[in-house]
Structure formats: structure tokens, C-alpha cells
Sequence to fold (69 residues):
Amino acid sequence: MSQTFFKPDWSQLLADPYAALGLSVTADDRRVLKRYRTIARLLHPDTYINAAPDTRGQASQIFARLINP
Fold:
């Protein structure tokens, strides 16, 4: 499993849902859904069971903000 490091300003990046997904505003629905599922799979809490508590907490917070912006 690869290590994930989050920048301190990650919460501001999630203000715009398209920026959070790394897509342009002209992306079609299928592309948005595919990118969302990819990111959700990466940030899902079950992925970080053996990770450090800080990393696991940050991933859970980002996952929650992505789902409920």
C-alpha cells in the first residue's frame, strides 16, 4: 500500500467539487462518476486500517467532505 500525505490546505481544495475531483467544469456525468468512484475507493476508511491514526483520520475527513460537501 502506498503512503498518502495530505497538504495542510486540503480543506480549501474541496470547496469546489470539480477541483476536488480534478476535473474541468465541462466534464460529462459519466466522467465525474468514474473519477468520484476512483477517489472514494482510495479514501475509503477500510483502505487505511493499518495506517497511522493521523493519516487514517485525514483520509476519513476528506472522504466525508467529498461525500457531503
Observations:
- The chain has a mean pLDDT of 78.
